[in-house]
Amino acid sequence: MQSIIHVSNLSKRYASGFQALNGVNLDIRRGEIFALLGPNGAGKTTLISAVCGIVNPTEGKVLVDGHDIARNTRVPRSMIGLVPQELTTASFESVWETVSFSRGLFGQKSNPAYLEKVLKSLSLWEKRDSKLVTLSGGMKRRVLIAKALAHEPKILFLDEPTAGVDVELRRDMWELVRTLKASGVTIILTTHYIDEAEQMADRIGVINRGEIVLVEDKAELMRKLGQKTMTLQLEAAVAQVPAVLDPYCVDLSSDGRELVYTYNAKDESGRVISLLKDLDGAGLKFKDLRTTQTSLEDIFISLVAEEK
């Protein structure tokens, strides 16, 4: 799939000497939802700011749809919508005025019907004449999203868009994201809610200490690094695991009533079937079976821990 954003050897060192980015290479595919995960201070916001032309990198290159953002800021910036972490909507303008201004700022012709559609999708239509300073934090977050969408961008950056907001906004936000993706918009998000990345993203990128640790299709990441656990509740307690089950490295619970088998998600189901056959051959009966699978959060924590 064609890349709409190409980041090559991107580094950023601040005057204080802090190295926020260190040789980042990254391609974002056109029309995908890409989740960028990382602990606080990992470089997520700096990377987004560099791609958006807000922060000047120390070295490296950023291409947005083939345009070098360092040489021609206007064109790539017009393609990008950014929803920042910080709430900066404390002015006395109305919701309608600030969203209309954002559209005009990028040279787009007036289109009240489109802005009405955006505001309604974010449950802001009834607040269109309200002054920003009077709005709640959740409503201000919605306005930031509306401002980012006002000029009909082809790329949307969402930097912690649902941090500290209510469940209703989160739900509306992800419904809108799905609609935007269906229309061809490329979406890059950072989030502390890893369940959101697991639910929404096509690909996952992990950044730590200014370096990209991993970029992988979500399904492939779960397949390669995820683990499954099968717990068998036995009909009668046993003192030890039968020798015939040694090849499976099965664990026995302290009360002798459960056998726990952990295996890679990519393993074939045939091995599980073989285990159950050997269990039956050993004369052990079970009355219940349950399985669990490693979450994306578990994988993320393990990846970051490996980097320490």
Automatic annotation (TrEMBL):
<dbReference type="InterPro" id="IPR050763">
    <property type="entry name" value="ABC_transporter_ATP-binding"/>
</dbReference>
<dbReference type="InterPro" id="IPR003439">
    <property type="entry name" value="ABC_transporter-like_ATP-bd"/>
</dbReference>
<dbReference type="GO" id="GO:0016887">
    <property type="term" value="F:ATP hydrolysis activity"/>
</dbReference>
<feature type="domain" description="ABC transporter">
    <location>
        <begin position="5"/>
        <end position="234"/>
    </location>
</feature>
<keyword id="KW-0997">Cell inner membrane</keyword>
<dbReference type="InterPro" id="IPR027417">
    <property type="entry name" value="P-loop_NTPase"/>
</dbReference>
<keyword id="KW-0547">Nucleotide-binding</keyword>
<keyword id="KW-0472">Membrane</keyword>
<dbReference type="GO" id="GO:0005524">
    <property type="term" value="F:ATP binding"/>
</dbReference>
<keyword id="KW-1003">Cell membrane</keyword>
<dbReference type="Pfam" id="PF00005">
    <property type="entry name" value="ABC_tran"/>
</dbReference>
<dbReference type="InterPro" id="IPR003593">
    <property type="entry name" value="AAA+_ATPase"/>
</dbReference>
<keyword id="KW-0067">ATP-binding</keyword>
<protein>
    <submittedName>
        <fullName>Multidrug ABC transporter ATP-binding protein</fullName>
    </submittedName>
</protein>
<dbReference type="InterPro" id="IPR017871">
    <property type="entry name" value="ABC_transporter-like_CS"/>
</dbReference>
<keyword id="KW-0813">Transport</keyword>
